[in-house]
Structure formats: C-alpha cells, structure tokens
Design a protein that fits this description.
This protein is an alpha+beta fold. It has six helices and 15 strands. Belongs to the pseudouridine synthase RsuA family.
Length: about 250
Amino acid sequence: MERLQKVIANKGYCSRRNAEVLISDGRVAVNGVIVTELGVKVGPNDEISIDGVKLEGDDKVYFVVNKPRGVISAASDERGRKVVTDLIPVDEVPERIYPIGRLDYDTTGVILLTNDGEFANMMMHPTGEIDKTYVAKVNGVVKPNAIHKLRRGVVLDDGKKTAPAEVYIVSTDKGRDLSTIQITIHEGRYHQVKKMCEAVGYPVKSLRRSQYGCVELGDLPTGGWRRLKPHEVKTLRTMSQAQKGR
C-alpha cells in the first residue's frame, strides 16, 4: 500500500506536490469515491480516476532540454506564455511530462523533464540534490577575494549562508567591465546563483546552466531536446543517493 499522491506521481500524471493539490481539490476518486485526505493509501488493484478519467500508467521517459530565454519552466501557464514542455512535440512524445525543478524565465540551459514522479522527487529532495553547474556573465572585473567568498559560502538576504561551492573565473573583459564565472552548487534555493553574485558585488547579466549532475549540454542547440540515455538516468539516481551522505 502506498500514499495516493505518490501513486499518481509514479504513474507520470504530475509531480507529487501537484497530486496533493488535485486530491485536496476533490478531483481524485478511488474506486469511484472522491478522496480529499492526503493520508489515504491505495493498493495495486484500486482504480484511481482524476476528473472522472481512469488513471493509466505510462512508460517512464526522461529528457534534457536546452531551455531558451523567455520560456517558463512549467507544463502549463495560465497566462498563455510558452512553457518548456512546448519544446517537445506531442506527436513524438505523447506521455504527459513535466520539468524537474525550474530555471528562471531569463535563465537558459539544462533542464530535465520526465513523467517519473519518484525520479523527479529524488532529484529535487533537499537531501539528494545533485551538483548543478552555471556559467554567469556578471558586471565588473571579479577579484580573487570575491571568488574565495563564494567558495566558502555567503549569507543571502534570507540570513542563511550558502554551502561551499566550486567557483572559477572563466574570462574577464576589462574594456567592457565584464567577467564570466563558473559556479557549481548542489543546493536549490530561489535565485541562488544570482543572489550569490550580488552578495559579493557582481550582479548577473546573463545566466546559463551548463550541467545537471552527469548531464551536459554538449552540442544541444538552444530549444533542442534529447532523451536521456539509460546510463545517465542510472548515474543521476546514484549521485542523488550519494548526496545524502554529504
């Protein structure tokens, strides 16, 4: 027996958090009876329906997308803006997929999508978040002491210090008063990289996530996508488990 929201997520309908919203809103039924309590458990023979439609499980699928600027990291948007799932043609991928975590509207680069709720939760759970690498173009010529501060961790506007990070200067342009730095973090706090850079005096002009765990952009074009290879999915699971020991 497993919790209803977990079963819905594992069948690829949506994330566990969204499943909890569906249940609370009275849109989920088990064996024909509407369920609104989040603690309900179901077995393999129970019939689950959402909005009157029987829930069927899809094959698990995993993708990486090179998200462009101006695309929302969501499966839908009430304001009609383009979302990341729009980048994958439904005639090629009929499964209901959704992004793992998010990238800001103006941030580009690696974002993973799946219909595997268990895998998504593993990637996003605070104890299992894996390394993510960003390339940031910032205002100013970055000084070594700022890099040292970022590496040790800086206090953000919420009063909490960031975990130690891997930080390197990629290039500097004294004429244009710009620098490019690479930052690898394993936390997933809101606007974290931007806030880290601001905390040491170098506001971000543009930001790209170049790597998520073992998954790199490579030659994937902006707006492009590909299926994750089986060994990548396996490695991500292994990395997530290893993170718990940090």
